[in-house]
Input
Amino acid sequence: MDRTQLRRKPARGSHDRDVIDRICDEALICHVGFAAPHGPVVIPTTFVRIGPELHIHGSVGSAMLTALSEGGSACITITLLDALVLAKTALHHSANYRSVVAFGRGRVVEQREDKLASLAALLDKIDPGRSRACRPPNDKELKATRVVALPLTEASAKIRSGGPLAEDNADDAALPYWAGIIPLVTSRGERIPA
Amino acid sequence: MDRTQLRRKPARGSHDRDVIDRICDEALICHVGFAAPHGPVVIPTTFVRIGPELHIHGSVGSAMLTALSEGGSACITITLLDALVLAKTALHHSANYRSVVAFGRGRVVEQREDKLASLAALLDKIDPGRSRACRPPNDKELKATRVVALPLTEASAKIRSGGPLAEDNADDAALPYWAGIIPLVTSRGERIPA
Output
């Protein structure tokens, strides 16, 4: 069975690359799941999408990057939580979200120019123009840094939006409780100089 | 080797239960990593901490909940992203965050009263008092809902805070680039009625 097939609530799913790309580009972190001898491990990290790949960087000593590039299949999940959904009945409560789940094996980005471009893209995602507003990596730093790219070929998006589902029956619909959504907004505060 | 031992940057780590609990109580979602035949799968979901356990609920048809309660060891990761950290050099850029990684096997919460208490705690976490401001689950709904609890016994927290690290040398420290942090704030917007 195709592992990107959506089992739960498939109506919320999408394999549209534009939809997937937009979620990847808005999110600042992803959660990387990889197999360790004792079971799966899930680690949060920053990332950047470059074309059809997700790029993650870190120390050459990172167990996560080693597992991503040398281990079996990994899973990268990206989640944007948009709202809490309050219904008149307890079990109709939900959340609005946009998520991407991508499966695959990573490849190490080896070429110097490719590594530099990847790191610059991450900096510019975090703060537009930042790659030209700081000292670029030198050879020693580049050597100590690993960049791993995971393809978005086996990826799917899942989105829930809007208000609570209609209640199951007229009695529930007539309940006097408030129903609606509480939007969640992530914003950038004032910069604090070091 | 103890799998909660922190390998990367152990100085950022903590096994203090108060630290772990506070992160769990502030975060609205976690990422659940479980083993599937083709490799790890990572799924975002809401959760609530009740005492020394993380509670997750969903449909009895949820593959994630089945894996959590009947499969091997799983990993639940909770991440709060607090700030982007901008340094004078590209590779000193970082992020401030608070995260918890918990390993273990889940147990199905079977008793009716325990399930109701767990669902009420989740509602009250999402919106204080909400469990008394909606219709509680009925027997049919409860039967279709699975609650799984994962112990926090094998858990660790990791925290980065503050500004960028000191630059490696005087030349870098003298660079004219701005350095500091961009705080990230998640806030609740105005409620939107259904």
Q: What stands out?
A: The longest strand of chain A covers residues 74-86. Helices of chain A lie at 17-26, 63-70, 112-126, 139-143, 170-173. The mean pLDDT of chain A is 95. The first helix of chain A runs from residue 17 to 26.
